[in-house]
Amino acid sequence: MSKQATNQAERILRRPEVESQTGLSRSTLYAMIAEGTFPRPVKLGKRAVGWHQSQISDWLNSRVTNIA
Questions:
Q1: Which range is the signal sequence, renumbered to this chain (predicted)?
Q2: CA 64 – CA 46 distance, rounded (Å)
Q3: Over the chain (68 residues), what is each successive 10-residue block's mean pLDDT?
């Protein structure tokens, strides 16, 4: 599968799923976004945002790498 096809098929995670995967609360997520230490969400609509699954996976992997 080409990179372009992979990007088109990439899943967008909504906030509750991001919270579940990372173990972070909503307020912590937004504080880390403001600090520049967590991926910024993409705007899905007037009041809806989501995160690219690959960015969340990369962020989690970087955290594990930093600990090890």
A1: none
A2: 34
A3: 61 97 97 98 96 97 79
**What's the sign of the alpha-carbon dihedral 31, 62, 52, 16?**
negative
List Cβ neighbours of 38 (8 Å cut-off, separation of 6 or more): 29, 32, 59
Identify the residue whose tokens are 């096809």: 5
Query: What's the pTM?
Result: 0.80
- Give Cβ neighbours of residue 52 (< 8 Å, ≥ 6 apart): 10, 11, 12, 13, 39, 42
How many domains in the chain? 1
pLDDT of residue 3: 58
On whether residue 45 sits in a domain, the answer given is yes
Bridge partners, residue 51, by sequence: 13
